[in-house]
Amino acid sequence: MQASSQDPSALRTFDVAVVGGGAAGTAAACALARSGINAALIDLHDICPPDFKADKVAGDQIGLMRRLGLFDALTEAAVRSNHVINMRRGRVIDRVESCEYNLPYEDLVNAMRRHMPDAVTRIVGKVARIEAGEDIQRLELSNGDRIEARLVILATGGGEALRASLGFKRKLLHKDHSVSVAFDLRPVGREAFDFETLTVYGDAPRDGIDYLSLFPFPTGTRANLFLYREIKDPIFAAFRSDPKQTLLAAIPGVEKAIGPFEIVSRALSRPVDLYEIDGIERPGVVLIGDAYRTSCPAVGDGLSRAFTDAERLGSVHVPQWLATPGMGAAKIASFYSDPEKLACDGRASHAANYRRNSTVGRGMGWELHRRRVILQRRIRAAIGSAIAPRRAAAS
């Protein structure tokens, strides 16, 4: 790691300065280095501190981490699971095979940083000011250090100060979209739970509960609960004071599903507003991940968007931009209209709205939809169970 100098006259130059060293920023820096681009990663912390965000890497995220050269970082730090049991109202809906890597967000980021190419210059410090322009971007750190780069990638998550100073406006799409709750638990009276990963869906729209997910974690067994309620709802104070009794009251029958248990950590709550940034086609600065728009945690595609942004920028757009003079708004706009990025963002937006409506949507239409979806899954599971022995015999 290269830390910032104490000489206030110091000026350092890079092709790209990535501001924010979370999952999106770290992935972007790695992608840039793999394309031979001289990049700096600037973050306030040398080691990513604890942060309740993504606890799983799954689906397309695994392939994206392979493409970014970060798959070994993932397997080094995570616990892998492969089998999921899905339940609702005390009955098994289906059992599915699903490869998932489970770990705290900060462990993921720190593992990614350890596997970052040596070509990336890491700077520990706070960016106090950014002066953006058509050709050169000028950054000033709080200790007086100065940095110049042709492009700034802003990966500061929900941080508002730098975005606002550059004139970006946040457009609120859905305030209090959802709240996530996390805690650790362990079985009582036996060595382990009778499942690898278990999902228990909410009972009815009035409960505002999407699902409870229990899965193996480096610290034991983790529980993530996703709710469509306002953070002011009394249930969140109840989770802080007595998480077990609050869980038992929120999801009747949950102890029968998972067996006797005790909660061994405090419950963490994280509210999420859905927003996106207006006025993004500005020279010199590009926003990625949550700095551009947020995702629904219950869907779990925040990392998909972050890694897609990083991969498309590092492997496609930034190499093309640096090949010609200037860093005007037209170049920046080409990233936001990238077909793969648009498809990923579109899926996230659709999934966020669908997930909420399918959980708490009122009216006969949504009720019939919920029943149909559950029935279809049970039928597919039954058919799969029936033909599995035949396939095994044939093979």
Short account of what is shown:
This protein has 395 residues and is an alpha/beta fold. The strands form two sheets. Strands 3, 4, 5, 10, 11, 12, 13, 14 and 15 form a nine-stranded mixed sheet that branches. Strands 1, 2, 6, 7, 8, 9 and 16 form a seven-stranded mixed sheet that branches.
Distance between the termini: 53 Å
- The stretches of 5 or more residues where confidence is low (pLDDT under 50) are 1-6
What integer value in Å does the Rg equal? 23 Å
Mean pLDDT: 94
Summarize the main sheet.
Answer: 9 strands, mixed
Order of helices and strands: EHEEHHEEHEEEEHEEEEHHHEEEHHHH
Q: Helical percent range?
A: 25-40%
Helical segment count? 12
Assign the structural class, choosing from mainly alpha, mainly beta, alpha/beta, alpha+beta, or little secondary structure.
alpha/beta
**C-alpha geometry:** elongated
Beta-strand content estimate: 25-35%
What's the count of strands? 16
Explain this structure.
The structure is a single chain. This protein is of the alpha/beta class and about 400 residues long. It has twelve helices and 16 strands. Strands 3, 4, 5, 10, 11, 12, 13, 14 and 15 form a nine-stranded mixed beta sheet that branches. Strands 1, 2, 6, 7, 8, 9 and 16 form a seven-stranded mixed beta sheet that branches. Helix 9 (about 300-320) runs antiparallel to helix 11 (about 340-360). The longest helix is centred in the last third of the chain and has 31 residues, at about 365-395. The model is unreliable at about 1-5 (pLDDT under 50).
